[in-house]
Structures are given as structure tokens and as C-alpha cells.
């Protein structure tokens, strides 16, 4: 497993008149399976034969923006003898979600030492199902309160981390004296299925496994990044463009090549509606987390918003090193911004992700 720790910035100077946010980020941890799968090796040793009837398969893998992925199931070995049925896939999902989340939950609790104050736990995963859900098992393992309020969010896809955060924000608004755990874990690698099309080549070239967890508290004006607000839009006329269903043999994802074009048409007014209530415009935002649904999404969003290569670098780096890890991805990007860009106090970031619906989610952060 890998584990990274966010470096929290200092508070704004005394006398600052900046508005209070909906929540403060107290800690953030990420984790991924130990197995690292190089993209070219995986294609040469496995996917080339699988997609031998898809002439553009190698071009798809080379153009994915992915150089390696962390995968619980290395396709070169896990699928060497065929495609397992649903039962072992779900067992692997549960095992790996819990393994990653032990690292992330344990990390934020070690940082805070305030577990008796955690009143809410919100957790998302769209790559599997089991009951009791992972949040229950993790709460038991870490000795969280018996009256802990829990919410498990499933099947919402790449934008689910924003729904996790919003549920935690609401809990903190209602009970500002408590803390909230909010995060996700995804095991995409257990869903390779026998469908040999260009669309499925794209899916198999992009997705990896990861988890992330945040510890949040009400904004008290003290140190730490603050979430100022969120904005959501759903464009139901494009519901056909992205889907996630359970088939007899595995879960099945569809991903239209037109998704980047749909997003490009909507992204400017979408971001403006996030920023306007805070008196900000695109040019006021120094840091950007764009969910890398694929390299074209990063390209199109960057072009429409006139973002610089440095501003897009965290999204491209996460895509290159992890792939698209569904709901966990945007928290991997936030972690990278905190550790590597090291925003100065008072700087802002916009985080955004896109999922079935098409649903567009965003959050505004002040460091």
C-alpha cells in the first residue's frame, strides 16, 4: 500500500476578513494497492491479445495519458485463465476497499487523535457491494462511537466524492462541535469483462484502484484549507453518454467519446456559477483539480478555461501515475496540490469531477 500525507497551510493573517467556509480540512490521506502495473507492459503482455480485433487498441492505450496504475488485480495474472464470476470479484472488492481504508482512516485518526469527537462517517464506493458496508466494519475496527451517523454512497461514479463531502458538510453545519470522516475507495481492476470493442479498450486503458479519506471540522477561522462551497449540475439530455450496470459476468461501464465535447460546452458557465457567490472569477483561481476522466477531458477543460500547464499538472500527474480511480481521484489530486504546489494562505482552488447523468460536481477551496 502507498500512503501520502497532506501538508496543511497556515491560517490567513490576523485580522483577515475572509468569509467562513462550510468546513475545514483537518487531514487527508490516500492509499493504493501495492501492485504497480506499467501501462506498456500490461498492453504487451495481456491487452494486445485481448483486443487483437480492435485495430486502434494500442493507440488507445498509448494515448490514455496513463503510464502506470496501482491494481488489486493485475490483469496479466488475475485474468490469465479467463474471467471470474461476480462472487470472487465482490470478495476482492471488499478485501481491497477495507485494506486501503485501514490505511486512510488510520492515517487521519493518527493525525488528529480525536476519534471520540467524530460524529459522522460518509463513505463511497461504486465498484462493489457487500453488507455490512465498509463504513460499518471500519467504524467497528477503529472503535468509533456507537452513535456514529453513517452514510454509504454507492453507484454514483467518478463524482461521488463530492456527494460524500456535501453530506459531511451538512452534518457539520447541524453539529459544528463534532468532526466528520469523509472518503471513498474504488477497486476498478476487478471488472474486466469479455467484451472486445474500442469503447471497452478505452475503459480498460484508464481505470485504476485507490482510496482517500478526509477528516473535516467546522471552519473556526484557524489553520487549514477551507471548503467555501460547492456547485452541482446535471444534464439529463446526456444520460446515454456514461453508464455503470451489473451484468451476469461483471460490472459493465459505457463511456461515450463525446463526453469531453459535452463538458466543453458546459464548463465555463458551470464554473462561473460556482465562483460568482464568492465574488470570484476564473482568473482568481490559482489551483485546479480537474477529474481526469481521460486526457481529452483535461485538454478540453483547460482550453475552455484558459488554464496553464502548471495548473493542469496535478490532474495529468494523477492520471499518469494512478489512472482514473473513479470517486477517489479528485482527492488524490487535492492531496497532490497540497503536497507539491503548496498553496499560499489565501489562494484558491477549484475541484471538479463528472459522472453519470451527466453530472458535474465542483467545490471551491481557500487555503
UniProtKB/TrEMBL annotation:
One of its GO terms (molecular function) is acyltransferase activity, transferring groups other than amino-acyl groups. The active site is at 158 (acyl-thioester intermediate). GO terms for biological process: polyketide biosynthetic process. It holds the Pfam family Chal_sti_synt_N. It comes from the Bacteria. InterPro entries: Chalcone/stilbene_synt_C, Chalcone/stilbene_synt_N, Polyketide_synthase_type-III, Thiolase-like. Residues 16-219 form the Chalcone/stilbene synthase N-terminal domain. Residues 235-366 form the Chalcone/stilbene synthase C-terminal domain. Keywords: Transferase. Belongs to the thiolase-like superfamily. Chalcone/stilbene synthases family. This is Chalcone synthase.
